[in-house]
């Protein structure tokens, strides 16, 4: 009987199965890391807008959802008040700040609010579709009291 060296078919199949399982775990972890990076990017962009909101209110201006357009629409907190990316944040274009582009899968919620007489404002970005935020998705909300992020109920 010859002394054969090498791997049996069963051993090779076991190794292939293990490699498949490990690659699946790695892909799932990479997708999770991408989602977390997008959320961190949104939180950073939204946090930077707080300075612009403070400057607007200091100059007795409200936040606007479409400041670069002909007739600015002030954020009132009503449904439909959805900021438009790359338009100025303040009514009278007081700052160079614009509503930043959000990563793929994120939108501004349609309820931005601003009242410089009461020194209150808020705006929210969330994972969602072109129209509404996804229930149970991640959100980042900024207001005159600071920014918070989390999972919506």
From TrEMBL:
Where are its TM segments located? 6-28
Q: List the Pfam families hit by this protein, alphabetically.
A: N_methyl
The answer to whether UniProt assigns keyword Magnesium to this entry is no
Q: Which UniProt keywords apply?
A: Membrane, Transmembrane, Transmembrane helix
Q: Tell me yes or no: is Ligase among this UniProt entry's keywords.
A: no
Q: Which NCBIfam families match?
A: IV_pilin_GFxxxE (TIGR02532)
Q: What is this protein called?
A: Type II secretion system protein GspG C-terminal domain-containing protein
Which source organism?
Answer: Candidatus Komeilibacteria bacterium RIFOXYC1_FULL_37_11
């Amino acid at each position: 009987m010859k002394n054969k060296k090498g791997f049996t078919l069963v051993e090779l199949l076991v190794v292939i199965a293990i490699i498949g399982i490990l690659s699946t775990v790695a892909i799932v972890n990479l997708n999770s890391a991408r989602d977390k990076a997008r959320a961190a990017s949104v939180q950073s962009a939204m946090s930077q807008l707080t300075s612009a909101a403070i400057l607007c209110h200091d100059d007795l201006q409200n936040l606007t959802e479409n400041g670069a357009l002909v007739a600015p629409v002030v954020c009132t907190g009503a449904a439909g008040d959805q900021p438009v990316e790359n338009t100025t944040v303040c009514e009278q274009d007081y700052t160079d700040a614009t509503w930043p582009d959000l990563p793929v899968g994120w939108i501004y919620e349609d309820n931005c609010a601003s009242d410089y007489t009461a020194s209150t404002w808020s705006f929210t970005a969330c994972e969602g579709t072109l129209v509404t935020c996804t229930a149970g998705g991640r959100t980042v909300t900024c207001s005159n009291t600071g920014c918070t992020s989390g999972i919506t109920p």
